[in-house]
Write a structure and sequence with these properties.
Largest sheet: 7 strands, mixed
Oligomer: single chain
Distance between the termini: 21 Å
Order of helices and strands: HEEEEEEEEEEHEEEEEEEEEEE
Shape: elongated
Strand content: over 45%
Amino acid sequence: MAAASLDGRRDPALLLWPLASLLLPLLPLLVLLLSAVEWPRRLVMVVPEGERVLSAPFELRDGWLGGPRLALTAEIPPNSSIELDVALLDATGRTVLDLTKDGWRASGVWAEGGESGTWQEDDAGLALAMRPGQSGRFQLAVQVQDLLDEAGRTLPNPVVVRGSIRNHSVDAPLLLFTAVLSLAVVQVLLLASYRIGRGRWVQRSQEASAAIRCEAGGPGLLRLDVVARWELPHDNPPLGQPPGPAALELRVSDAHGRPRLQHRGMVVVAHRSDDGDHWLSVRQSLHLRLPERGSYRFRVELPEVFRADGDAWEIEWLRLSVEDGRMTAWPVPVLTLAGAEEGR
């Protein structure tokens, strides 16, 4: 009978390239971060009615990271309206963009149910996303055509227009949505690469042993998951001392019943409790390399009675699951059956 051996050489079931997909959701976030690093250029203009005021020169840059975004806000008195002419001039003074913005600002007092307060609404802002034909220096020309109160009378006050220019503005909600969608795609890829094999078999037993016979073998590894639980035969709570390890035995035989592997190891036992209920549990995974495809029988056994802390814990159930054709993202200890070729 062959004893289990651990193959320390690189396993062909080691699949690394899907891990590179974890960088995919980071790309939209990186673009968003690079855009946020840039500080916007601030502009302030005091515009009397009927006069055309030029801003300080600024630079608009064309590039792969987003596009320039220009935002203007006119500070007008409450309960007034404005008509604002805005022109974008290039370095030669030629108008490359011309538009008119109608704005307003309203405020008032409300009273309801014995309570009162004030309200205020306005629409005196302008935002433009642009893509210049080439990078260069530009200026804004701003002129107030009409500044009227709520009665339609002209207000003589000059208007303060504040602006901000960001050369690399991006659509943040769209980038965040892209990152979330990319993460979902990556999770599907990792699930298909590492969690789905050619077949899966599960056996649950009320005893301390379980066995599965199945057709397995081929590229990848065979993974065995063992989960078991012991409980006390009485209602007295345990003393609470940590339990020691338990002996786990694995036997593998081929289609003719010949033993191909016998492995015995110690597994960690955990003490768990919930609402006064106490139990001991074991969870262990083993990876095997099968020399060829065929019919194999896998049998695992744990102690029927586990003695810990002066108590005799009795097995409640044991579950054995076998998954064939599993790939791994990191090296794992591999049990090799008798007759397996070294280095496979």
